[in-house]
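Q: Can I see a sequence and its folded structure?
A: Here is a first one.
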Amino acid sequence: MLIYSGCRVGEYRHIRKTDVKLLRRVIVIRHSKTDTGAGRLIPIPRKLMPWYEEAMQTPGLYICGRADGSRHSYDSFRRAIFDPVMHHFGMSHTPHECRHTLASMLDSADVNRTVIKLILGHSLEGVTERVYTHKSIRELLRAIDKICT
């Protein structure tokens, strides 16, 4: 999920079910370490909709919560979710590398740089990007579906 959302772990751990808009296929990021990251919309790949629909049925307020429904700490997220997956596949990566992977996949798919920055929550530089470039949710969805087939 981290790879196809581009979320920082802290953002992912704070996603409430009320921030997941299944009909629009977007996640609203309300908690971020940067001003640019907070308030952004992350597109949900069509292929991952069944996972999000299932996650919405689990107990608790958070999309990625503990068994008791509470929010994971960074350490509990690593111990309970991320590290076991890495071990299962014989891999050694950090959660932050998932953001790098998404950026690389979008770049390899020739996705517009502004769209990549919007998905990752990076600041838009220059007057043209900040003021005159507006991307629609449809463009973000097209970009994420392009790499998640």
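Q: Show me another, different protein.
A: A second, unrelated one:
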Amino acid sequence: MLKFAWFPIKRHILVQGKSSPDDPNLKDYWRKREEAKAESELVKSRQKIAHRQKYVCPICGDSLFNGEELHLHHKKPKSQGGGDNYGNLQLVHLYCHQQIHSGTVSSP
């Protein structure tokens, strides 16, 4: 039987006032929110990859945290000599990953 005391309380950050991601004056505010989301949702290795990408999908240019499932993509496939190093990995949305492998979009 699980006990509620075993789980830490997770506080959510509320959006301040009428803040909008489209407001250029609040760019830092939204960046900090993305970083906080990455720290809570991703393991350390994927946090590092997300930080290198500035928390943006390189294919669609949208935030990595828009609700879509994230996939780890190898820029240079392992079959062609690509490795599992940070320089060869990127986080992309599920749909963007499908587009890369279908040949619709090329990987940056």
